[in-house]
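note to self: dont lose this again. the chain is below, predicted strucutre after it. 208 aa total, dont forget to put it in the shared folder this time
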Amino acid sequence: MSTTPLTHESYERIKKDILTGIIPSGSVLSERALAERYQLSRTPLRVALSALESEGVIERLAQGTALVRHVSLEQFFDIVEMRRVLEVETASRAARYPITSELAELEELLRARDERSFEVFWNEDTRFHTGVARAARMPMTLRILSRLRETARRCTIVHSFENFSDRLNEHLAVITAIRDHDPEAARSAMESHFDGVRARYLNSLTNG
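---
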């Protein structure tokens, strides 16, 4: 993608609105409407849309119409399983190094037990998972993880919770194991976290 400031800003603004649901899955993207909405000329807009298409965020129909790709439940649970395999090993490896200041700061924040909106929780969740990958010195894993999380966020089920206490406790358990330099405990805590993630989403489908 072009690295001009305007093109990058266009890309980031449109992508953020898609990820946060302001532009919902399945929406048809009119270049004219987007140009008016974001006050953009056609060139940076088209480059931004092309980048989003290459990432699988949007797709083109046969007649050239662009729309936001829907993330199915099957895709979502596939992502959860892929992340489980990846992040269990990442947590184990992170415990072999001294705890980073990033995770130590997040640990204090998680212990505060304040109520959280979805957006606040999602930002903390991002800090946790990317922080563990950075603590493990695994930059390639970090890039893969970021892409998987972006895709998962577009699934409507992700926004179905208001209480995040279980997940915060699970995050704390992983960080504690990393602080204690206990790779097996870190591995087990991350496995338990993803077991909990899957169980909560399945339960929400059953009781929704």
